[in-house]
Amino acid sequence: MGKQYFLSSTVAKPPIMPPERWLLAFPQGEWTRWATLQSVLQPDDTVWVPVQHEDWLSKVAALVAAQPACRVVVVSTVPYDAEGLRAVNVGARGYCHQLAVPEMLQEVAQAVQHGGMWLGPDLVQRLVAATRQLLADSATPSTHKVDLTVLSDRELQVAKAVAAGKSNKEVADQLFISERTVKAHLGAVFEKLGVRDRVQLVLLMSSAPSPAV
What we know:
This protein is α/β, with parallel strands linked by helices. The protein has helices spanning 20-25, 34-40, 56-66, 81-89, 102-113, 121-137, 153-163, 168-175, 179-193, 198-206; strands spanning 4-7, 30-32, 46-50, 71-76, 94-97.
């Protein structure tokens, strides 16, 4: 896994610095200013960009253009869907609360490092809805065959619920299991079906015949 960088600035007022929770999540992480970051960034690194930077959108786009293999996570103290969509549109792989607990920040880093995306449940549901609409409007639906029989009964139930746009908590409530169990099943689903995030799962499930559960 590459390094974790937090894009800071001592010039801004107030200064943009990594929160304590980020430092706890990534003890080996580094906070750096824009000029320095551009000279040290490697393909496998992850850059956390706070929206306090007035030009955060252009910085995300520039990072992705200069080093396409790096991962960019946008963090906000007041996350909302429209901002998250803007982040995704310019190439961010993640969008989350800047003051999330260290364990959550580590999960975000792991997800994007493995090629997936990390977005809040509401934003995921919006992307899922948009994806479904595009598929419904398509004159040439996908003919890619997906074998859902590789999934266990419970994994299939989780996959169907997630593909319908439900959050992990909603899936847990629906199936009377813990969120931790949902995450474990979802990880197995991603691995068995060869997808990296929820949006890819929706695309795949939309073209798959559903075996009886």
